[in-house]
Amino acid sequence: MKRISTLLAAVALTVTVMAQRTDYRNFVGLNLGGGINTLTYSPKDGDYKIGLGCDAGLHYTHFFGEHFGMGFGAYYGLSNSKVVYNFTETTTGLTHPDNTNAKYDLNTQFNGWRERQNVTRLSIPVEFFWRKPACDTWTFIAGLGASFDLPLSGKLKTDEGTYTTSGYFHSLGYPVTNIPSHGFGTYEANQEKDIENLKLGVSVIADLGFRKALKNRWGLYMGLYCGYGVSSMLDEKGTDPLLLINSADPNQHDYIGTVGSNRIDALHLLRIGIKVGIDLGWNGGEKKAKALAEAEAARLAREKAEAEARAKAEAEARAKADAEAARLAREKAEADARAAKEKAEAEAHAIKEKAEADARAIKAKAEADVRAKAEQEERERAARVQARLDSIAAAQAFMPAKPVSRQEMQKKLDDINATVYFETAGTTPKFDEKTDAIIRTLCASMMADDNLKAEITGHTDNKGTAAVNIKYGQKRADALKKYMVSLGAPAANIETKSRGMEQPIVPNDSDANRAKNRRATVILK
Q1: What is the DSSP letter of 242?
Q2: Domain 2-287 sits in CATH 2.40.160.20
Q3: CATH top-level class for 407-524?
Q4: pTM of the entire predicted model
Q5: pLDDT tens digits for 100-126?
């Protein structure tokens, strides 16, 4: 298995085939990840240690659009862990072959006893990916999904520490020690055996990293990955102790191991590490799309040629029709010319006589027209003079008898103001006939004089927070401004502001008083 891992690591520098050029939708590549890759469990009376490992394999990803995609793959993985025991294990109710009538308890003292476990597996990941270009060549990638982990092989090995066995025979009343022939002695760590009670596990996995686009559709990925087994990989929980003595031959000890014993209840995978990888991207269906484009171009060219042929035939038909029409028009023109010549000769004499008579009549009419034109011009000149005089008189009639003083104008402005009231939490003005008349008077004054400006202030009662009431006061001032603008007042000359609940005109101690404080006031300046 180590040779396979080394070979895959040498062939690939990758983790996840997550491509990031937006014009590519399919990616395939070799993946390699390494770091904490361990079997996690909680041993009873033992000191658990995490281990390192790796994952390597093939991966395929398809993006449905610019950002989102889905991928799956096949990975070979190696996970390691270890545990150190320093405790005494007791197994009761045993029968020794040297004295089948005597029951005894087996005590096993573990001293610095270290057991290593390693498991190889085949993992099938299924992930959903999201990508976002960071610049022209770098793309950010994130993935989330699940992995189905099938154990291929498992081994345990003890490589450090000792265990000492002794038997306590109840009939003797004391322990029996240091008799190797009866299975009681001190033994070095040199056990090695297969781990068999493993099953398929499911893990949640995640990826986070960047992909750099290379030449010729290749890309390099670098990032982090993690995964945790949400289901236990134990086929069934063990019931045996760590060490058993052969009931037929006490010299033979059977070391069960942590995974197969009653020392643990569950076994999970944990993976946290760095990933690197290389992948190849492409878009599917290029040939089909090219063929469809060529067929469409051929169809358009054929239709264009047919249209040009029809246009040419129609042009030739129109040319023949135009030629025939020109010939007929020419013949008609010749006939008309002859008829006109004959008619002209017949009428020439009559025309000459009539022309002389007409000349005399025209001369008389011209003289009359000259006199009429002179009379008309004289009337128009008189009308223009009269219109000028009327305009001057009208202008004088509208001129004031004396200029109005600035103090008088200010006094009028001080009298022109209005207050509009609102419902609770409302922003729609309520007008009575008098208030609406005042508002319309204000708008008419502002339309007549561009120097007049209006100031609208919104107020509220004391219900709610100060921040909320400031907003409501501003909305009420803006609503009244909108109404005045609809009546013709220039929006640029109207200023709005809010005092919220800061300036009540009466105490907010009743519904009637609060209604008086929910208002907006407008003053001309």
Answers
A1: S
A2: yes
A3: alpha beta
A4: 0.52
A5: 777 888 999 999 999 999 999 999 999
